[in-house]
């Protein structure tokens, strides 16, 4: 079966996490992704957080599936010519170097356009144009400057970063959408264009509801679904809301049976208004269904702490999975707090290809997250990440270099 992006060639000049997330997705959709790495060293993550000596780390292997690897010294004059040949042959260049690095290498937008006017140049940067445009940025910096950290955590504690890599992988996802959109536009205009996804912008986009709340707060001075209401105080900026749901349906994380020794024996419980009577019946507080102090969402708002404490008395008598089973029987929305170990062992995620076992010639078998986006006409087969420079000769031959020329470039240190 064909793939959605069959025939699209990507010059993957990315490293670390944000860029590689993007190009891995494009590879899963069928693009030929040629990862250009620094001769001799490669993507720095190959050796970061290693769990097996001398084997590419899980950090690298889990972000670079389905790609080919070529090593080129793009600061060497002959290496530059090889990169130029690749630019002429590819549809998209994706890069996430520090600001200005590509220009310093001699590959300005103008130069790339000269070489290939159809080329789409897609970049991840920490910030968009402005006072911080020259700054280097990593995941947690993006979470802090994009509004996530100031709005995550508990009111009486410091800002908190989340484990979800919304700065890196989140921005990679944004960039991938920009690239396929630019490819689509190119089918009509015949022209390439620049695509920029700034990590601050990507995080802020994912924190959209908090900018909503900032404006609500400025207008009314209070937000009733926040745990600060009615007993705490609101300042001038959106506060940290703990585990409150952030939407119109109050929710909180509650202890389940075994919480004393299992750090993940918890469930997220949503007191969705339409199922309030069922909630009252399940937890044995039938009288709350008709009591004017509890029967309506507005009446419940100032009593949420007490209500969740009562629900928790019930959840603590069940394991998180028992609670999930009972609550779902009554259509009550909830979510057990799954540990990575539980997710790793989840049979249904294996069946859908969301968790995949991959074999690697150096490190052996390992688990990875497969393509989270499923296309019915473009199935994903996850194949292992390339060894450093594994496809240099193959790609050079495709560019028209003879074995003797390849050997000479290797001797010159250009590849
Ligand atoms: N051959 C020769 N030189 C190469 C090369 C190659 N194949 N590939 C990269 N280089 C050079 C670059 O030209 C650059 O040289 P310069 O500094 O002389 O211009 C150098 O390697 C380092 O690249 P850089 O991107 O600056 O790496 P860094 O380790 O200094 O910074 C980041 C890393 C992630 C902070 C930075 O790349 C960045 O801010 N990227 C944008 C935001 C981003 O994606 N952050 C998230 C990462 S998950």
From TrEMBL:
This entry's Enzyme Commission designation comes to 2.8.3.16
Catalytic residues (positions): 168
User: Which keywords, in A-to-Z order, does the entry hold?
Assistant: Transferase
UniProt binding sites for CoA? 17-18, 38, 96-98, 104, 136-139
Extract one GO BP annotation from the record. Answer: oxalate catabolic process
Q: Which Pfam families match?
A: CoA_transf_3
Pathway this chain belongs to? Metabolic intermediate degradation; oxalate degradation; CO(2) and formate from oxalate: step 1/2
Q: Any keyword Nucleus?
A: no
Query: Where along this sequence does the record place binding of substrate?
Result: 247-249
Taxonomy, superkingdom: Bacteria
Q: Which class of enzymes does this protein belong to?
A: transferase
> Reaction catalysed?
formyl-CoA + oxalate = oxalyl-CoA + formate
Q: Name one GO molecular function term.
A: formyl-CoA transferase activity
PANTHER family xref list: SUCCINATE--HYDROXYMETHYLGLUTARATE COA-TRANSFERASE (PTHR48207)
Family per record: Belongs to the CoA-transferase III family. Frc subfamily.
List the HAMAP family.
Answer: Formyl_CoA_transfer (MF_00742)
What functional role does this protein have? Involved in the catabolism of oxalate and in the adapatation to low pH via the induction of the oxalate-dependent acid tolerance response (ATR). Catalyzes the transfer of the CoA moiety from formyl-CoA to oxalate.
- Subunit description: Homodimer.
Name of the molecule in the record: Formyl-CoA:oxalate CoA-transferase
Q: Which gene encodes it?
A: frc
């Amino acid at each position: 079966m064909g793939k959605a992006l069959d025939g699209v060639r990507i010059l993957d000049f990315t490293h670390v996490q944000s860029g590689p997330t993007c190009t891995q997705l494009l590879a899963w959709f069928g693009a030929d992704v040629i990862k250009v790495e620094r001769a001799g060293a490669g993507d720095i993550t190959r050796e970061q957080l290693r769990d097996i000596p001398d084997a590419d780390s899980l950090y690298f292997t889990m972000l670079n599936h389905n790609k080919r690897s070529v090593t080129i010294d793009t600061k060497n004059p002959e290496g530059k010519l090889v990169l130029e040949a690749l630019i002429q042959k590819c549809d998209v260049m994706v890069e996430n170097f520090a600001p200005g690095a590509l220009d310093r290498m001699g590959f300005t937008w103008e130069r790339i356009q000269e070489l290939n006017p159809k080329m789409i140049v897609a970049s991840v940067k920490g910030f968009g144009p402005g006072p911080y445009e020259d700054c280097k940025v990593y995941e947690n910096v993006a979470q802090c400057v994009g509004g996530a950290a100031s709005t995550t955590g508990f009111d009486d504690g410091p800002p908190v970063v989340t484990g979800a890599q919304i700065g890196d992988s989140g921005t990679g996802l944004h960039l991938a959408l920009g690239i396929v959109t630019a490819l689509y536009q190119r089918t009509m205009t015949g022209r390439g264009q620049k695509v920029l996804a700034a990590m601050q912008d990507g995080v802020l986009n994912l924190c959209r509801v908090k900018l909503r709340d900032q404006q609500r707060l400025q207008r009314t001075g209070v937000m009733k679904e926040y745990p600060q209401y009615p007993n705490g105080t609101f300042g001038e900026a959106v506060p940290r809301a703990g585990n409150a749901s952030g939407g119109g349906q109050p929710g909180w994380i509650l202890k389940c049976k075994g919480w004393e020794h299992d750090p993940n024996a918890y469930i997220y419980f949503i007191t969705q208004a339409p199922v309030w009577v069922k909630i009252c019946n399940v937890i044995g507080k039938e009288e709350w269904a008709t009591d004017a102090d509890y029967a309506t969402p507005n009446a419940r708002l100032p009593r949420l702490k007490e209500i969740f404490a009562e629900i928790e008395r019930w959840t603590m008598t069940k394991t998180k999975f028992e609670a999930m089973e009972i609550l779902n029987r009554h259509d009550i929305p909830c979510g057990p707090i799954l540990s990575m170990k539980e997710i790793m062992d989840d049979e249904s995620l294996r069946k859908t290809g969301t968790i995949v076992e991959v074999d690697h010639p150096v490190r052996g078998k390992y688990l990875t997250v497969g393509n989270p986006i499923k296309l019915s006409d473009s199935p994903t087969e996850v194949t292992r990440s390339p060894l450093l420079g594994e496809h240099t000769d193959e790609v050079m031959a495709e560019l028209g270099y003879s074995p003797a020329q390849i050997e000479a470039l290797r001797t010159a240190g250009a590849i």
